[in-house]
């Protein structure tokens, strides 16, 4: 993204997703630990902030000072290139993920996710930039994305 290369966003970029900063999650988790009324219950601990995948990528771009060059690629097409995407993308990220946080807020009344994604990702970018050795490029992932984009733009077979 920083180098101006194209980035893949699955589908049309409009499916909704919820991202939760670890500090916010920890507040909910700690509030449940040792709380006897929480025993036997299942919880999700998420933010109330809901973003589209396009918004997520644009927010990441803004945090690093660039406008991402997004290429929308159908999720089914992406899964043709890697069978593992069938579960993690088709069965998860391609679907809207919006949660009702009433239960965690009922069991842990002080729980509120207060760190918006734009702030959380800015913190993360600062953390990476603080030590250049953290800023490594995963060449296999880049090669995969370049291949998918090249094939999609040329409408070639993934095999």
Verbal overview:
Helix content is 47%, strand content 10%. By secondary structure, it is mainly alpha-helical. It has one domain (6-154): 3-Layer(aba) Sandwich (Rossmann fold). It has a two-stranded parallel ribbon with strand order 1-4. A two-stranded antiparallel sheet has the order 2-3. It is globular and about 55 Å long. The two termini are 26 Å apart.
* Helix vs. strand class: mainly alpha
Amount of helix: 40-55%
**Low-confidence segments:** none
CATH level-3 fold name = Rossmann fold
| Terminal CA distance | 26 Å
Q: How much is the average pLDDT?
A: 89
Determine the strand fraction and express it as a percent band: 5-15%
Rg estimate, integer Å: 18 Å
Secondary-structure blueprint:
Blueprint: E1 6-10, E2 16-18, H1 22-32, E3 50-52, H2 53-64, E4 69-73, H3 75-81, H4 85-93, H5 102-107, H6 117-130, H7 139-154
Parallel strand pairs: 1-4
Antiparallel strand pairs: 2-3
């Amino acid at each position: 993204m920083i180098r101006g290369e194209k980035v893949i966003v699955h589908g049309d970029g409009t499916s909704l997703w919820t991202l939760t900063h670890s500090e916010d999650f920890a507040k909910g988790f700690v509030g449940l630990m040792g709380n006897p009324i929480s025993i036997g219950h299942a919880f999700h601990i998420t933010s109330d902030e809901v973003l589209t995948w396009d918004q997520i990528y644009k927010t990441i771009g803004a945090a690093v000072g660039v406008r991402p060059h997004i290429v929308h690629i159908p999720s089914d097409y992406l899964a043709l290139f890697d069978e593992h995407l069938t579960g993690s993308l088709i069965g998860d990220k391609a679907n809207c993920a919006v949660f009702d946080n009433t239960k965690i807020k009922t069991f842990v009344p002080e729980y509120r996710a207060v760190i918006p994604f734009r702030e959380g990702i800015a913190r993360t970018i600062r953390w990476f930039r603080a030590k250049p050795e953290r800023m490594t490029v995963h060449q296999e992932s880049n090669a995969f994305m370049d291949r998918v984009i090249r094939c999609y733009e040329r409408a070639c077979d993934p095999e």
